[in-house]
Specification:
Blueprint: H1 14-35, H2 42-45, H3 47-67, H4 70-94, E1 104-106, E2 109-111, H5 113-130, H6 139-158, H7 162-169, H8 172-179, H9 183-198, H10 202-219, H11 223-246, H12 249-258, H13 268-281, H14 293-296, H15 308-341, H16 345-369, H17 387-405
Antiparallel strand pairs: 1-2
Helix pairs in contact: 1-3, 1-15, 3-17, 4-5, 4-6, 5-6, 5-8, 5-16, 5-17, 6-7, 8-16, 9-10, 9-11, 10-11, 13-15, 15-16, 16-17
């Protein structure tokens, strides 16, 4: 199939493959360390073997994605998006989980449709924006892009899964900007978010309004446009208390703990506190593989899933977390290089979306383990235990490698 497409396996980006193998290896080491203990349940002790099987399956999935011609990826984009939205609706009625509706539970297999939605939304958005007829000065075209992202985001929030919803929503602005959206429009989108975050305090709200007014004046837009933007932001500020009251109690607690307005060392803050202790106690060289006391004594919660970065910090130390972060940086940098050099607009937007999804996962996950981001329950790509997450990330890598092989095709 590659020969017919006039491309060769030798042209594949081997640096990206090495980065993925290194990250998966570190993840498997950490999963083995956290689950290989007499005090853990039998189900958790099997996590290491399951993760290996899921990785092998994910590698085959990524290979299939690499072999798929671009026209097929583009052709199935809207259909896959439609299927993902249907699945997100169905899971609200028949899905399972502890107080949530996130998974289809089929015996021992738990399938999370939100993972499919990430890929589907990315492909659909790339296909829509790659159409030469699109005009990003048109409110209609911009509005369609917003709707394509906000529909799955709203359904995922309904499950509820705030972390995944944030990841899906994060696709919008980077892909739109790469497609040619003007910086002023990006500002129009970002300014209500700034207003919302600042509306909890009269002084921060006032400072945000001053900042927005200054930017509007510097933009030299017409007076009706400036007034409309100003009214929109004031409205967002006025509605913020109502939106806050619609959040679940645990979501409010996480946000308040994150911004330092509430100390909760025995509740939500416990996870972050134990994570900080684990990372800090690792020092420069770490305590050694499978020798982490925070890990072995089970002080660190969710250690083989959401807080696996803390395990790396405790057992491999500063050099270990630096190695992981540098590997992610190299992977994303190489992917951006593919996005820049790709001649096909669909491919370049697709890769930017892949970089955004992986990058946001890394920033939010590592940020929450060191206490500079709220605990949103999203995994660290390639390291955290979980088949759905690993397959999604392997698919993203497959899409990046696919674009790399075909970057000079129009």
């Amino acid at each position: 199939m590659l020969a017919r497409a006039n491309i060769s396996w030798k042209d594949i980006d081997k640096v990206i493959i090495v980065c993925v193998l290194l990250l998966v290896t570190v993840g498997l080491m950490a999963i083995y360390s956290t689950t290989n203990s007499p005090t853990t349940s039998a189900a958790i002790r099997h996590s290491f073997a399951k993760q290996i099987i899921w990785f092998l399956a994910g590698a085959m999935l990524a290979s299939a994605v690499v072999l798929t011609p671009v026209k097929y990826l583009k052709g199935v984009a809207y259909s896959l998006y439609g299927v993902s939205v249907v699945l997100l609706i169905l899971v609200l009625f028949v899905g399972g989980g502890k107080g949530v509706h996130r998974w289809f539970i089929l015996g021992p297999v738990h399938f999370q449709p939100a993972e499919v939605a990430k890929i589907a939304t990315l492909l659909a958005l790339a296909r829509y924006l790659s159409d030469e007829a699109r005009d990003l000065r048109s409110l209609k075209d911009i509005g369609v892009c917003f709707a394509m992202v906000l529909v799955p985001t709203a359904l995922i929030l309904k499950e509820p899964d705030l972390g995944t919803a944030i990841v899906v929503a994060s696709l919008l602005l980077p892909v739109l900007f790469w497609a040619g959206l003007s910086p002023f429009i990006v500002f129009l989108v970002v300014s209500p978010i700034i207003t919302l975050l600042s509306a909890f305090n009269v002084y921060t709200f006032g400072a945000a309004m001053i900042l927005i007014i200054v930017v509007l004046l510097l933009s030299k837009r017409k007076l009706p446009v400036l007034l409309a933007v100003l009214v929109l932001n004031v409205g967002v500020g006025a509605l913020t208390p109502s939106l806050w009251n619609r959040l679940k109690d645990y979501q409010k607690t996480r946000i308040l703990t994150f911004v330092g307005l509430q100390q909760d060392p025995r509740g939500t803050g416990y996870q972050v506190a134990q994570s900080q202790v684990a990372i800090g106690s690792g020092g420069f060289w770490g305590k050694g593989w499978a020798r982490g006391t925070q890990t072995k004594l089970r002080f660190l919660p969710e250690q083989h899933t959401d807080f696996i970065f803390s395990v790396v910090g405790e057992e491999l130390g500063f050099w270990g977390v630096t190695l992981v972060l540098l590997t992610f940086f190299v992977l994303l940098w190489r992917a951006l290089g593919i996005a820049v050099s790709a001649k096909n607009k669909f491919l370049t937007l697709m890769v930017v979306g892949c970089v955004t999804l992986i990058g946001v996962h890394v920033i939010v996950n590592t940020g929450m383990t060191v206490g500079i981001m709220p605990v949103t329950g999203i995994p660290l790509p390639f390291l955290s235990y979980g088949g759905s997450s690993l397959w999604t990330n392997m698919t993203l890598v497959g899409l990046i490698l696919n674009a790399g092989l075909r970057r000079f095709q129009y």
